[in-house]
Specification:
This is Dipeptidyl aminopeptidase/acylaminoacyl peptidase. The chain is mainly beta. It is 13% helix and 35% strand.
């Protein structure tokens, strides 16, 4: 048996994490200059700003807040060297190459100024800044080239009046407004769709539309998009219209209406521009694949989708960012995570399926700026998947219905569909591991080639173990184990929880898996193991679903890892804080400490809280994560027995509470309710406020705020007294 690797003598410090380069969650890597250059948006925490009292998540500086610390970086694919074309700006994001691959457009921002549009010319290095104000919903305002590279399509916004400047003007909301239409208007900040010519001409194509996804047609002369038209109040689901706008005449054509989707990203153009494929999805319903003629002459359903229950006990309707794509003008391909690929002939005929191996994560390689799929010389699409600690590059032949492995390499791919990109003939993807937050790899029919590491030379603080389970009876768990030998009493343990995440155990295959509250390396480098248990859920009565699963995980762990049961802590952010408090009140005498951020602990109070424009979280608690099924007045008992706040007298572990905000409505009030309740009970609790920092410490907080809270969290957990 090999000797354990010695733990470094110096634990990880928060400062060590501030300069770690992480892949952006929403901007795909993309190739330009005939594959010689790779552009990608990354995030560096030390570049984030952290001003106290900055406007909230729906304020006028939204893109500037959401993109703090973002950088567009460009790598040379021949030697892996990199540079920043927009270095003169404090942030940049959403790089998009022109059709000839010579110019790179991006959104840019300087502190104190609004975000604007800029173009970098790779031939001479010149950058041109266009005076158009981009926004309003990051990351959906990514610029796109149109009209043969002579214009750029971008979402723009107009300055708004700060209500604090006119205190005598009331904000009026009327309950008599049509609830569907009113929610659609306030669901997201609306913006203008604007065509910006490279000659400086600016033309607004649509005003005050809420659109999550625009895409220019293959010929560059039209643009399509799913526009939010209403919210279905019964099911708390968005309804979209599929609209095409002619970029020359400005004429608009509505191809389909009442399309149900979660994010409005599930659609694409055919290669010849004659049709658009789109999904109809929803909770507890089978997905449907449709195709609409681009001239508006009609739409028809191609398939009724897969079973209503997807992999890991989740609803198949949660398609997120997985749009249908086109293998050719006659074939639409659908990739459903956990199921595999299905090719559907547009003119009729039997679909061809190639399933994903059970329990493996797989992503196809796609063109990030279009609707095509990366294929080899024989027309087979290329995919990458995790298999037994390795990444496999596969050929997926959707004519013969077979899979062939081209190459394998140790590592893991990101589970995010947004970390795959490239160009027509080669794909780029992120290979991750517990030791490395991202290496860029190039994949083609000829195999795999490493391009560059985002963070060369990072120290290693833990090893990884996965304990697989049966989602229906024995949840799996991912473990980050400190280096070195365990103490005589076993490893102290932190359990990171988020109810409803049935695949949390897969997070450990990434560097510093994001749980929203703290980087695990800060704990493992101090001798604490960190566990990510799978927590699948069923509808109704959520609060008592977590304890049996966590108890079962704790009982199984001694078979694979020595654990000191007197020193087990639990942490969670957002709905993970609801999960944490639910465990504290249903599993007393189990945890030595707990930490939460952006707490959701009082569903009734959260249900009635509003964003400034009137939107609420009723959908989250009724049919979303909250799983309570009905409004509070329809079944008061269910709401009472599922409120951790009403059972705070059962909490026996010290609780650290962090809150930034504005995040979810009522977030700061929930933190105060939790703290004052525990204080009234004489329990050990500490509330730390960081005004204006946002919802998740690891995602949106600036370096100073995060460093303070993370340092306190580590001290809070590691300094907690063991249970008797």
């Amino acid at each position: 048996m090999p000797e354990p690797v010695a733990r470094p003598s110096t634990p990880m410090r928060v400062e060590n994490l501030l300069d770690v380069v992480r892949p952006d969650r929403a901007a795909l890597p993309t190739l330009g200059m005939d594959g010689a250059l790779l552009a990608m948006t990354v995030r560096i925490r030390s570049g984030s700003r952290s001003p106290a009292g900055r406007p909230g998540a729906h304020g006028d500086d939204l893109p500037e807040q959401m993109t703090a610390g973002q950088r567009v970086r460009v790598w040379r694919t021949d030697d892996g060297s990199r540079f920043e074309p927009f270095a003169a700006w404090s942030t940049s994001w959403g790089g998009h190459w022109s059709p000839d691959g010579r110019r790179l457009a991006a959104c840019v921002h300087r502190d104190g100024h609004p975000a604007t549009l800029a173009v970098w010319d790779a031939t001479d290095g010149a950058v041109r800044d266009f005076a158009v104000r981009v926004g309003s919903q990051y990351p959906f305002e990514r610029p796109q080239w149109a009209l043969g590279g002579t214009a750029l399509l971008v979402e723009t916004r107009r300055p708004r009046t700060d209500p604090t400047d006119t205190p005598r003007t009331p904000s009026v909301l009327r309950s008599q407004d049509d609830p569907d239409d009113a929610r659609a208007r306030t669901l997201l900040d609306a913006s203008d769709l604007t065509l910006v010519g490279t000659d400086g001409d600016v033309r607004v194509l649509a005003e005050d539309w809420t659109v999550r996804s625009w895409q220019v047609s293959p010929d560059g002369r039209r643009v399509g998009g799913l526009r939010v038209t209403r919210v279905d109040t019964a099911g708390h689901e968005l309804r979209f219209a599929l609209v095409v706008i002619d970029l020359v005449s400005g004429a608009r054509t509505t191809l389909a209406e009442e399309i149900a989707q979660q994010y409005g990203l599930g659609w694409s153009w055919s290669p010849d521009g004659s049709a658009l494929a789109y999904l109809v999805t929803g909770r507890r319903r089978a997905d449907e694949l449709w195709v609409a003629a681009a001239d508006g002459t009609g739409a028809r359903r191609l398939t009724g989708g897969t079973s209503a229950q997807g992999p890991h006990g989740t609803d198949s309707g949660v398609s997120d960012y997985q749009a249908p794509r086109w293998l050719d003008a006659a074939t639409v391909v659908r990739h459903q995570e956990g199921h595999g690929f299905v090719a559907v002939p547009v003119s009729g005929g039997d679909p061809v399926e190639v399933p994903t191996p059970v329990g493996e994560v797989e992503q196809w390689l796609v063109e990030p700026d279009g609707s095509g799929i990366v294929t080899d010389d024989h027309g087979a699409l290329l995919s990458v998947r995790n298999t037994d600690g390795q990444v496999a590059l596969d050929r997926i032949d959707l004519v013969r219905g077979r899979r062939d492995t081209v190459a394998v390499h140790p590592g893991s791919i990101s589970a995010s569909a947004l970390h795959v990109g490239g160009g027509p003939s080669a794909g780029v993807f992120l290979m991750t591991s517990a030791e490395q937050p991202g290496e860029l790899w190039l994949a083609s029919g000829g195999g795999l080639r490493r391009l560059a590491a985002l963070n060369p030379g990072l120290p290693r603080h833990h090893t990884v173990q996965r304990v697989r389970g049966d989602v229906r009876s024995r949840p799996g768990v991912g473990l980050l184990v400190p280096l070195g030998s365990p103490p005589a009493d076993g490893w102290p343990l932190v359990i990171s929880v988020y109810g409803g995440n049935a695949r949390a155990s897969e997070l450990v295959e990434r560097y510093e898996p994001d749980n929203g509250i703290v980087e695990p390396g800060l704990l493992t480098s101090r001798g604490w193991a960190v566990a990510f248990p799978d927590l699948p859920m069923t509808d109704r009565d959520p609060m008592r679903q977590f304890a049996p699963m966590v108890r079962e995980v704790l009982d199984r762990l001694p078979d694979v890892l020595p654990v000191d049961r007197r020193r087990v802590a639990v942490v969670g952010n957002s709905y993970g804080s609801y999960t944490t408090l639910s465990l504290l009140v249903t599993m007393p005498e189990t945890f030595c400490a707990a930490a939460v951020s952006a707490p959701l602990i009082n569903p009734i109070a959260s249900y009635g809280a509003m964003y400034p424009e009137g939107r609420t979280l009723d959908g989250l608690w009724e049919s979303g994560q909250g799983r309570l099924g009905v409004p509070p007045w329809a079944d008061p008992e269910t709401w009472v027995v599922n409120s951790p706040y009403l059972f705070l007298d059962r909490v026996d572990a010290p609780v650290l509470i962090g809150v930034g905000g504005p995040g979810l409505p009522g977030e700061e009030a929930q933190a105060e309710q939790l703290f004052t309740g525990l204080r009234r009970l004489g329990r050990s609790a500490e509330l730390r406020r960081y005004p204006g920092e946002g919802h998740a410490p690891t995602a949106s907080w600036g370096p100073a705020a995060y460093a303070d809270f993370a340092t306190r969290l580590v001290d809070w957990v590691t300094g907690a007294a063991p249970l008797a």
